[in-house]
Amino acid sequence: MILNELKTELRKHIRDYGMYIALFVIFIIFGIMTDGVFLSPRNISNLLNQTGYLAVLAIGVTLVIVIRHIDLSIGFLSGFLGAISAILMVFANIPVFIVIPVVLFLGVLAGLLTAYPVAKLGIPAFVASLAGWLIYRGALLLSTLRTGTIIIPNKTFNALGNGFIPDLFASESFLPGIHKLTLLIGIIAIVLFIMMRTKARRMKVAYGFEVVSQSLYILQMAFFALMIAVVTWILAGYNGISWTLVIVLVVVAIYSFVTKKTVLGRHIYAVGGNPEAAELSGINVEKITFIVFGSMGMLSALSGMLFASRLQSATTTAGTLFELDAIAAAYIGGVSAAGGVGSVVSSLIGAIVYTSLTSGMNLMGIDISSQYIVRGIVLALAVIFDVTTRKIGTK
Amino acid sequence: MSDTYILEMKNITKEFPGVKALDRVTFSVTRGEIHCLVGENGAGKSTLMKVLSGVYPYGSYTGDIHFNGEVQQYRTISDSEKAGIAIIYQELALVPEMSVYENIFLGHEIVKNGTIDWNETIQRSTELLKRVGLKINPGTLVKELGVGKQQLVEIAKALSRDVKVLILDEPTAALNEDDCDNLLQLIQNLKHEQGVTSIMISHKLKEVIRIADTVTVLRDGQTICTLDAASGEVSENILIKHMVGREINNVFPPRDHEISDEIVLEVRDWSAFNVQKGKNDLTDVSFNVKKGEIIGFAGLMGSGRTELARSIFGNPDKYRITGEMLINKVPKRFNHPGKAIEAGIAYVSEDRKKNGLILIQDIKQNITVANLQEISRRSIVDDNSEVKVATEYREAINIKTPSLEQQVLKLSGGNQQKVQIAKWLFAKPHVLILDEPTRGIDVGAKYEIYTIMNKLVEEGMSIIMISSELPEVLGMSDRVYVVSEGRITGELPIEEATQEKIMQLATN
Question: DSSP readout, A247-304?
């Protein structure tokens, strides 16, 4: 009986679960094809770190797509601001704790600048941000013109992309070689997750909303708990949680909270769902457009710093095609070009799927040309899946 | 199958889900005449023409169409065009960025050896323009022409296809007097000199009387009568009587309350200049609303009532406005709907799907969207209060749904409308503007909405109701303003208002 319910539940919410199932399948396939190398702690840890800069962009661009716009400038903006952070640290000797907020602020400014023609003059975001794409590409080349690649010697900064959180409970006697703080965080995460979900479920029951049966609910919780536990265990077996992962999780948590729980988030989705109705409901569509593009600029800056930190240098080609990768990740994560639909968590999963493809195929020794083709097919399949399941959903 | 009729439509019935738009309509047009089709909004005129032109393909309606003595089964518009039927819609179908000659032959270009013969195109366009009496260079871009001239280009386009029957859907609605005159003259010339049969849909009864040889009146999807102008039985009064002469069988719930003398909203000499069109959409509009009163705004579609409501409600169309608005005697002017909402005005839009609801979101989200602050603490939405509020309104105005988490998309028209009303009631307005509150919903839901309106005014709210349904205006209003072409053409206390009087003012 529970199997039957699971089946109907899966069919009904296939759009919500599809992403996780796809990720699971990809992991299994690559695990088998690489004789388990893909699933090794080292590789998984690396994979998540590689996803960082892309995930941050994908989260930002999700909201841009939700309000029916697009931002092509984000790739080179991130590259350019990465270079700026390197220049500030290396040539101006400004401390890293000042550089980071300053660059984030510059990102916000750049985002607002892109938003201006879109919100105020009604210029299509595609064109406005394409102009930004060209400008920031030039700016990146200009800023690295005399120096070429700028090596960043700052250890704190480089830790953002390469470092791991320290183990506060390091001990050789208890579970040697395992990162104990990571384990603890994993356990706390599981407990918090189950508590929050259970509270939400109880509320739904109290209001007489439709919920899944008790036994299926327990199965669901067990599944998610197991997923978190497995990932935690794998990470704890290597160096623990990386700073990149911490940053990404914090960004996802904040954006998820803002989009789901706040008035601002509701307004963003209302504008995406029906801009005219939103305007007539007293929502300032212009203001929302500025906020979303401003946040996009800030996340581009963050992404640029994560990337520079990971390479420990600012290069002349940083940010090339990041925008398209981020947009692809968001679409794989189920954001809808028609507006009003898409979640930041799904886009994070989309980004992980996207990077997993690269990582897995690299391990398998597949050449880059075939990799592009496979990524293209996965994107097409994801969007086709999305459109067809949406039709089922509305019937 | 008489030869005198060029077109005969017999027993045409067309149903949409829940509505019978046409009910055994019979419509016959004599060769070489000007035949006018009149009726209220929603009487079925446009639907009938869409059946004729193949917009609604053969099989989606029942009944027969005979054209030139042969049975016709049009599946697409191009089928009817081939047969020689051309429709000119109110919304012109020209490409503004293209030249006049390109537009005239758009879709049936003159091709020689696989390429377009522009010289021939231009020469034939010049001839066609001469036929419609338009003295312009055929190379002019359409966007540089006024609406009146564009209309003539449309007719030239129709003539280029060797048209036998020309159908004009409210051709003069957007024209000034001179252009109107011109156009009517042209239609008559085409008849006398070239034997073109014309069918004209119009709300302007004076023009109908001026040019029609025959008039057919439709009402509620049925043919009421066909009148012969030569016999002298066509006059404005007779036409109006036939157009509105239905028995009022909608029942309106009784209302019993005192209207106070306190004026809550007053608008004086209100004009709205449309920057894009370069003309006034509203001119010198003055009206007032008292506390606890239902004001009816009657008029034809496109008369400017919606524009008026929107210009008051924060002016999202960015009109350049002159005039005064007083709310509780205090002068106010809003530059955004949000400001109007704060001041206690709410606007339930006429097109709930297009700009009223967020269809992909659920019921509770739609109800709270205009007033999220009320259920939030420090800008964080409290899900509990949201459900509480939504439950309250669901019960108060009887939204029929299995769950508040139902997507609005999946609700019936009546329930969607109730969600829209709930949303605006939750914004706690003093003045509620309802734009076509019962359009496209069934009789039962209509009655419920009327009951809600009564309850609201009894509690002291004021309602402005825009409606194209005369029985509704007469059944619900305390006072009626009639709007025509962006002006208020009359104010009637409900005791004096009749369908005939309103129609007269609306077609002025």
Answer: HHHHHHHHHHHHHHHBHHHHHHHHHHH-HHHHHHTT--HHHHHHHHHHHHHHHHHHHH
